[in-house]
Specification:
Blueprint: H1 16-21, E1 26-28, E2 31-33, E3 54-58, H2 77-88, E4 96-100, E5 103-106, E6 111-113, E7 125-129, E8 135-138, E9 142-143, E10 148-151, E11 154-158, E12 168-170, E13 173-174, E14 176-177, E15 179-180, H3 200-203, E16 213-218, E17 224-232, E18 238-242, E19 252-260, E20 271-275, E21 280-284, E22 296-298, E23 305-308, E24 316-322, E25 325-327, E26 339-340, E27 347-348, E28 354-365, E29 368-370, E30 377-384, E31 387-389, E32 392-394, E33 401-404, E34 436-442, E35 445-447, E36 459-462, E37 465-470, E38 473-475, E39 482-484, E40 493-495, E41 498-500, E42 512-514, H4 527-533, E43 542-545, E44 548-550, E45 555-559, E46 566-569, E47 572-574, E48 577-581, E49 586-589, E50 592-594, E51 598-601, E52 610-612, E53 615-617, E54 622-625, H5 629-632, E55 635-637, E56 640-642, H6 653-657, E57 665-666, H7 692-695, E58 733-735, E59 738-741, H8 746-752, E60 760-764, H9 770-773, E61 781-785, E62 788-789, H10 793-800, E63 808-815, E64 818-825, E65 831-834, E66 840-842, E67 847-849, E68 863-866, E69 872-878, E70 882-888, ...
Parallel strand pairs: 3-4, 4-7, 5-8, 6-23, 7-24, 8-25, 14-20, 23-28, 24-28, 25-29, 28-30, 28-31, 29-32, 30-33, 30-34, 31-34, 32-35, 33-36, 34-37, 35-38, 36-39, 37-40, 38-41, 39-42, 40-43, 41-44, 42-45, 43-46, 44-47, 45-48, 46-49, 47-50, 48-51, 49-52, 50-53, 51-54, 52-55, 53-56, 56-57
Antiparallel strand pairs: 1-2, 9-22, 10-11, 11-21, 12-13, 12-22, 15-19, 16-17, 16-19, 17-18, 20-21, 26-27, 58-59, 59-60, 60-61, 61-62, 61-63, 63-64, 65-76, 66-69, 67-68, 68-75, 69-74, 70-73, 70-76, 71-72, 71-74
Amino acid sequence: MRPPHPSPPLSPRRTRAGATAAVAALAVGGLTLLPTATATASTSTSVSATPRAVQLYVSPTGNDRAQGTKARPFRTLERAQQAARKAAKTKRHGPVDVIVRGGTYRLRQTLRFGPEDSGTAAAPVRYAAARGEKVVLSGGRSLTPHWRTYSGKVRVADIGRGLDFDELFLDGARQTLARYPNHDPATAILGGYAADAVSAQRAARWKNPTTALVRGLHQGEWGGNSFKVTGLGPDGTPTLSWVGDNNRGSGLHSTYRMVENVFEELDAPGEWFYDKPVGKLYFYAPEGTDLSRAKIATAERNELIRVEGKSSTAPVRHLSFVGFTFTQTHRTLFNQPYEKLQLGDWAIARAGAVHLKNTARVDIKGSLFDQVGGNAVLLDGYNSENAVSGNEFSHSGASDVAVIGNPDAVREPSTWDSMRQTISDTTPGPKSENYPRDISVDDNYMHDNGQFEKQTSGVQISMSRRVTVAGNTIHDGPRACVDINDGTWGGHVIEDNDIFNCVKETSDHGPVNAWGRDRFWPLTADDATKKSYAKLDAMETTVIRHNRIRHSSHWDIDLDDGSSNYLVENNLLLNGGVKLREGFHRTVRNNVFVNGGAHFHVWYADSGDTVEKNLFVTADPYDLIQVDTARSRPVIDNNLFWNNGRPVPDLSDAWRGQGLDTHSLIADPKFTGTDPFSDPKKLDYTVQDGSPALALGFRNIPMTGFGKAGSPTPPPIEWADDTPTDTVDAFPEPLLGAQATRIYSDRIKSSTGLTDSDGLYLQTVAQTSEAYRQGLRGNDVIRGINGVQVTDRDSFWHVYNGLAPGSSVKLTIWRGQASTDLTVTKPAGGEQLNNTSGVVYGGSGWDWKNTSRGGAGGWADDVHATQTKGDSFELAFNGTAIDLITQVNSDEGQVDLYLDGTLVATIDNHSDTRVHQRTVFSKAGLAPGPHTLKGVMKTGDYFIVDSFKVS
């Protein structure tokens, strides 16, 4: 049994038990209808028959002039559909069952269902594969090529002109459209990438560049960006036309990119190219292929089944599809328009192998979606009480299940191109009925989505209400495994899922990802006003409970910008944690965090957030970025921390002094079984009776019931912390009394909302500092200085140090995910500069040392040191006086000092005892303006540089 929770009760239709009960054997006419006989899509899915049920049969060997009986079946699904419509109009029978016998049905056009195909609650219409028989619905055509040698191992065949396909299958396996670089299964991102994929030099090889298609990542690695090549520019560089597959703009990553559908790139086994104007198919078959016996097929239909009612008041009702294999659909990446979905990062092509629109109780069960080109199942606009249950989704081109409402249901919708900053409509909830509600996506095995599109997931939710995602195993995809694009309108339940190996090709994302950039988020308003509006769209609490989630980055559950009204409880979070950013009313309770923690980013005042009764197995349970806990007033208490007997620095006296974790403990939780620190494969984190966690109110989480039975389980956790906190990039360097670092990790980049790592990041800005007085704030990023782009420390300091004391400094600041300008003034009395502040080090022996590496005691608890005679430092500065401040010791010696290129002194840094921060050289009375100070090691075992005072 699960621990009790305060979330609203679920309707029977939405519970796991209800969904599972609906997946039972369909016994009709002596046959029991089940899904196809595959290892992972074999859940029994029939409903008990009645004596008055109508049974219609279809077989590839049937005849459409027959009666549709078991002995004389129809040949096509279209003919069976006509008979089913006629039967459904008769009121004196039970269900209408269309029983489809084994074989491949190649659809010449999308099979369309409308209100006339509806059943009733007492007499549903059900299309199902016969027990033990594999029924394939294909969107392609079977080819019978007569192959001949073209060149080397490349074969060619005439298959006819003008065919529309961009996927080719060999014996049922998807082949590779001719590409550069060649596909490498060991490379996660794009299966291989190259910075020169669309260079002029590469394009010079192509006879017809307009066939070329470019797939890459967004410049911020926020999903994908794809393009058609329309020609070549004057310099020979391909001209690109964006297809619109990202809500955050068309920026193409400079490295993560590839090009395909180019004849001249056909040079590897498995690659193919179709020359459409002349009708020739070229193929470099995999080793060992006997093309004379091989089955070759195309993918030409965008959609296989489309169920569409007239409106929300005239939907298609009580229709189901059970046990089919859906395969070989056209990629929709390049042939369908994209729509941007609110203020999430996602855009979508409203198409799917199975497309449901204006439907109620239309179910897809026990089926296999095998290598479809785009979305597998799309619930589009009004859909009510539908179930997608007991299926397998394998290698979908886009998302497996997309549950997407219409923008006309949203009050004052925004996208990144058109963002509202005021509210005129404060009515809660949806504006129209054109959105999905009470949908169940349960007991599915979903893996390897996003083969072509990279803004994809196992389950994608946008502009929907009360979607239950339960008992699914979801793994291996380029971005989230479950994505909630916006807060409209909440009430979702994400439970009992097993989720791992997500976000494999992109960044700044979680396996369970959410945004809440709803009406309140972009407002120009104070936090109290935003809080008063936070539940206008996120009306009902979204519950994320009893999931096992494993990730290889910072957060398993990423409640990003504005995500509000969430309950996160009873989850096993492996190798990551939970991020809470810019939202209200989030409760994180009774979760087990293993090698991960709670990330608090950019909190509003009076957030209403609670973090309690959790068990943290980590050295670093909390990560705070631009959070003032006194202002945000969270409730954080009764948590248990364990770091294998070592200290947990986050649980400090200062933290407790704010009233946080006052009852929390650092103690061994007493897990059953093996020790997690020695057993990274451990998946059972049950605590024993007498555990101190239980005394704090924690309750054991059932360690079974995650995911679909028989599916793979997560890989081991990774105890090594890959965050480079002991590097010069992560070092907090003094700047006007603030602390500045590089953007040294994905979590920092995420917190700022930047697409790159350029700039100086202001980690903290004390209110007593000169930086704060002049308008700089924590989480600011300095991106430019006096018109010069800031990429790293030196690019900032070389400009800054060249300005005279008292000068105005024009800064470009990235703040709140937008660029703004700020002018500050250098202190007129001069300032102290650290050894990292634009100093140029010459020679091979220099080593930067922080507190953990021998730099303690320096002005900023760091120094630069060398043991190589002849090594030098040089500082360019602007002022009339300079002091050199450094450490002296018994192993140091003489240093030659040059001012503006002239030797002015030889100083001796030898001292019988170590002295930190000694002024070893001073020079005043310099002419106002730029100067350089250079020091060269002459004698001794060490030469150390600490800081400088310039005035």
